[in-house]
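Backbone geometry:

***
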Amino acid sequence: MTIQSPGLFIAFEGGDGAGKSTQAARLAEALESRGLKVLRTREPGGTPIGEKLRSLVLDHGHGHIDAHTEALIFAASRAAHAGQVIRPALDRGDIVLTDRYIDSSVAYQGAGRDLGTEAVRTLNEWATDGLQPDLTVLLDVDPADGRRRRTAGDAAEDRLESEADEFHALIREAFLQLAAARPEAYLVLPAHLAVAELAAQILARVDALLASSGKGAA
């Protein structure tokens, strides 16, 4: 695996309700306890313009958003995120943890919206100037389980979360295909495992990556 900068870039991917935010927070806490500098961020969002675009594309009430417009909004948010937040942090030597990255667009718009995974990947690689994670942690969640998780306590679903389970099944399969194509760049874990067990396996993989890159010392 090629380390692209002084820092380390880790993306958390998976269907809605997989527990990405929880595991990113656990990993950040573990790494920061060692004196390592960690930046946690998310997509869509991460920048002022990105947060506005997040609202437009995820909140209900903005009217119909066609698939091409949806894909372009996500790509625009990601371009700002990569250029304004992720690259500068990596250049400083930080460990960047992002909740979603390019794979989400490939899965949701490429497969789920049937725009074509390669077309969506090409768009986003252009938007990010080719910036790729050093590791992608994929939390694999069954669509029905994901819906139970994200609606617990009467939580409201956003525009994409509220899509039918069939849509989320397409997304799940796309994520798994992405990981199968480049297994060395992914850690795939079943989301139903206990939070602590998932956290331990993720930290072990990141420790190995830090050791191989010489970045494990604070």
